[in-house]
Input
Amino acid sequence: MLPVRSTPSAFALQAPLQAAIVDLDGTMVDTLGDFSAALDRMLADLSLPAVPAAAVAEMVGKGSEHLIRSVLARVQADPGLYDAAWASYQRHYPQVNGRHSQVYPGVVEGLRALQARGLALACLTNKPTDFARALLRDKGLDGFFAQVFGGDAFARKKPDPLPLLRTCEALGSPPGRTLMLGDSSNDAQAARAAGCPVVLVSYGYNHGQPVRAVDADGWVDSLAEAAALL
Ligand SMILES: O=C(O)COP(=O)(O)O
Ligand SMILES: [Mg+2]
Output
């Protein structure tokens, strides 16, 4: 465990930042309603019982495949239904994407402030790239990002460091000078392994575990707060 710091300002002194990589679900947009709506439709297609949103919140963050497998296990469905579930989910998600979700307070202010400091911005999510781009567009956030990469963009997803390393390359920013802003252990573990400083928001989805127990450089209550502390 690294020493726990209450604010992320310390790493700004170690190395001036060139870029920031921002997670999507649970960090910029509260998408639990979209996930629940798409999963409800998928479960209905398969004549399976619905799963409460609070349970879905604990399964989000490791990409669609993991989410679908976790939901099927939760309702004690035959794992052999996976392919049908996947196809149903892929059909329904674009229809609900953005309709049951809200941008968190402080996101637009935070992104503006990061940009005003001259940082290049990328969005890196485990959500499929097409869904991520559509959601960012729908919420008016797409203009902030030089790069957008989803969970299907690289051979492995967060918490593997590969997506962060590739995103740093795409931004032309060394990992040590690229801040990861996320909401879960997936973001933090990937950032640690890639060598990126990492700050977590206090309000997202961290598999039902306290986010302050995750090894990170700091925690903030909004992206606006993160930008102000740099
Ligand atoms: O698991 C997902 O689809 C969302 O993941 P994210 O938190 O990386 O955006
Ligand atoms: Mg997230």
